[in-house]
C-alpha cells in the first residue's frame, strides 16, 4: 500500500475527528461568513506525491475554503436553495462512510429497502401515496425521468415502444405548458424530442398559471395524445396551475400529466397552502427536488409516477449479474444511473429526526420570512413588487438603476445573495426563502443590504 495512504488508514479515527471539528467550525460560523465571497483562482499541477489528509486539509483551507459560498446559510436567497439540517448532514456523512450502491438488492438489500421506505415516506408527505418512485440527482433528472415515461406513454398510444424502436418511431410530439422551467427544455433535448416540441399556452392575466380554457382550446385542435407539463410553483412567483382542473380536462382529452413540483410541492405540508397542490395525486408523474425545501445536502431529488411499468420499460438494464426486472424491480431498472449513491440516507435521517411537523414548521417559517421581506420592500421607495408573495419567493424590481448593478452591490456586501430574472419583460431580482436557519434577524439584514444598494 502507498505509504501515505497507509498512514491515513492507521490514523483514520483522527482523520474523521479532525474533519468533524473542522466541519463543526464551518457550520458554526455560517451566520457570519460572507454569503458570496469573491474568489481568485490559483490553478496548480497535480501533485506527484500527495501530502496525506493533513496536507490536503491544510491546502484546502489555504487555497479554497474562504472562497466557498455560505449557500447552506440563512441569507443565501438565490435560486431555490435549502441548507442541510443537522440530521441530514449526519445521514449524508454516513452515506459516504457506508458507501452503498442501492441500485440492486444483491449485496445492498438494506440500502435498497431504506430507499424504498424513504420514497414511501415522501409520497405520504406530498400526498401521492399511490405513486412509486426513486431518488435521482435533482429536479432536472426528476423531470427527465417523468418526461421519459411520458415519451413511452405517447408511443404506447400509437402502438410503438420508443424504448425499443427509438424516438424516430414516435413521429411528431407536442408538449403543452404555460410556464415551463428551463430544465423541462433540457430534458426534452436529452430525450431526443427537442426543445422545439414545446408549445406555450397562454397564462392567466398577470399570472404564470396556465389558462385552462386556452389549454382546452389547444387540446381540441391537436390530433392525437400530447404531454402537458403543469407547474406546482413557478420559479419567479411560485404560481400554481389549477391541477384539479387539469385532471378534469384529462378525462376529455388524452394527455400525460407531468407536474413540476420541484419546491412548490412542499405547500402540501402547510394547512394554509395545501389546496395549491390539490390534484397532485392524480398526476401521471411528479418532480420534487429535496435539496431545496427538505434541506438535505446536494444532490437529492425524487420522482414519482403512477406507471412504474413504463419506467421499467425505459430504464431496465438486464444483464447476467443483474437479472431481469421482477414485479418489484430493483432501482437499476428504474433510474438513468446504474451506479447510485445512497442519496436516500440523508433524507431518511431528516424525516426520521424531524417528521412531518418539523418540516411543516420550516416551510411555514420560510413563507413567513418571504412575506416579511415582501412587506418591507413594498413600503420602500424605488422598489416594486412584481407579484404577490404567494409562498416563499419575493420577485421585485427597482427604479432608477440597473437591476444588475443593485444586485451586484447586494451580493458584494456579503450580507445576502440574490439571483436575477426577467418577469413579464421586466428585469427583476428574486429572493427565495427555503433555508431552515432563516430568522427575522436574517430577513432584516437582507432588507438592509437591499436598501443600502439602492440608488440615492
Annotation keywords:
about 450 residues; alpha/beta; Aspartate Aminotransferase, domain 2; 2 domains; 15 helices; globular; PyrdxlP-dep_Trfase_small
Summarize the structure.
It comes from Saccharothrix mutabilis subsp. mutabilis. By secondary structure, this protein is an alpha/beta fold. The chain has 15 helices and eleven strands.
Give the topology.
Blueprint: H1 3-10, H2 12-28, H3 52-63, H4 86-98, H5 109-126, E1 132-136, H6 139-157, H7 162-165, E2 175-177, H8 182-190, E3 198-200, H9 212-221, E4 226-231, H10 243-250, E5 255-260, E6 285-289, H11 290-293, E7 301-305, H12 308-315, H13 344-378, E8 383-385, E9 393-398, H14 403-412, E10 419-423, E11 426-432, H15 440-453
Parallel strand pairs: 2-3, 2-4, 4-5, 5-6
Antiparallel strand pairs: 1-7, 6-7, 8-9, 9-11, 10-11
Distance between the termini: 65 Å
Query: What profile does the largest beta sheet have?
Result: 7 strands, mixed
State mean pLDDT (0 to 100 scale). Answer: 96
- Structural class by sheet pairing and helices: alpha/beta
Family: Belongs to the group II decarboxylase family.
Protein name: Pyridoxal-dependent decarboxylase
Keywords: Decarboxylase, Lyase, Pyridoxal phosphate
Organism: Saccharothrix mutabilis subsp. mutabilis
Amino acid at each position: 500500500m502507498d505509504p501515505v495512504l497507509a498512514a491515513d488508514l492507521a490514523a483514520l479515527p483522527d482523520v474523521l475527528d479532525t474533519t468533524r471539528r473542522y466541519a463543526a467550525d464551518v457550520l458554526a460560523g455560517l451566520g457570519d461568513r460572507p454569503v458570496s465571497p469573491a474568489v481568485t483562482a490559483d490553478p496548480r499541477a497535480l501533485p506527484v506525491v500527495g501530502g496525506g489528509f493533513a496536507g490536503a486539509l491544510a491546502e484546502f483551507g489555504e487555497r479554497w475554503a474562504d472562497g466557498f459560498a455560505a449557500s447552506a446559510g440563512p441569507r443565501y436567497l438565490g435560486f431555490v436553495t435549502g441548507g442541510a439540517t443537522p440530521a441530514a448532514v449526519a445521514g449524508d456523512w454516513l452515506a459516504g462512510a457506508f458507501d452503498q450502491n442501492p441500485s440492486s438488492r444483491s449485496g445492498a438489500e438494506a440500502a435498497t429497502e431504506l430507499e424504498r421506505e424513504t420514497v414511501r415516506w415522501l409520497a405520504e408527505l406530498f400526498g401521492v401515496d399511490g405513486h412509486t418512485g426513486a431518488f435521482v440527482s435533482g429536479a432536472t433528472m426528476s423531470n427527465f425521468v417523468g418526461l421519459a415515461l411520458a415519451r413511452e406513454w405517447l408511443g404506447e398510444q400509437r402502438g410503438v415502444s420508443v424504448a425499443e424502436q427509438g424516438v424516430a418511431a414516435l413521429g411528431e410530439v407536442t408538449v403543452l405548458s404555460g410556464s415551463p422551467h428551463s430544465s423541462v427544455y433540457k430534458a426534452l433535448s436529452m430525450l431526443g424530442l427537442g426543445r422545439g416540441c414545446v408549445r406555450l399556452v397562454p397564462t392567466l392575466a398577470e399570472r404564470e398559471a396556465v389558462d385552462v380554457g386556452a389549454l382546452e382550446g389547444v387540446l381540441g385542435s391537436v390530433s392525437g395524445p400530447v404531454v402537458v407539463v403543469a407547474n406546482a410553483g413557478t420559479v419567479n412567483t411560485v404560481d400554481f396551475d389549477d391541477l384539479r382542473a387539469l385532471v378534469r380536462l384529462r378525462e376529455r382529452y388524452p394527455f400525460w400529466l407531468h407536474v413540476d413540483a420541484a419546491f412548490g410541492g412542499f405547500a402540501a405540508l402547510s394547512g394554509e397552502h395545501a389546496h395549491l397542490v390539490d390534484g397532485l395525486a392524480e398526476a401521471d408523474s411528479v418532480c420534487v427536488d429535496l435539496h431545496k425545501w427538505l434541506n438535505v445536502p446536494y444532490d437529492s431529488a425524487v420522482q414519482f409516477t403512477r406507471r412504474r411499468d413504463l419506467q421499467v420499460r425505459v430504464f431496465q438494464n438486464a444483464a447476467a449479474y443483474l437479472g431481469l426486472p421482477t414485479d418489484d424491480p430493483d432501482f437499476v431498472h428504474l433510474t438513468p444511473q446504474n451506479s447510485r449513491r445512497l442519496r436516500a440516507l440523508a433524507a431518511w435521517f431528516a424525516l426520521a429526526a424531524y417528521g412531518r411537523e418539523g418540516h411543516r414548521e420550516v416551510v411555514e417559517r420560510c413563507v413567513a420570512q418571504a412575506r416579511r421581506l415582501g412587506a418591507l420592500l413594498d413600503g420602500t421607495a424605488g422598489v416594486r413588487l412584481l407579484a404577490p408573495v404567494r409562498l416563499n419567493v419575493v420577485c421585485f424590481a427597482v427604479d432608477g438603476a440597473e437591476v444588475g448593478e443593485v444586485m451586484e452591490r447586494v451580493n458584494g456586501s456579503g450580507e445576502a445573495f440574490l439571483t436575477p430574472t426577467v418577469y413579464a419583460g421586466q428585469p427583476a431580482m428574486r429572493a427565495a426563502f427555503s433555508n431552515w436557519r432563516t430568522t427575522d434577524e436574517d430577513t432584516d439584514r437582507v432588507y438592509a443590504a437591499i436598501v443600502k444598494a439602492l440608488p440615492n
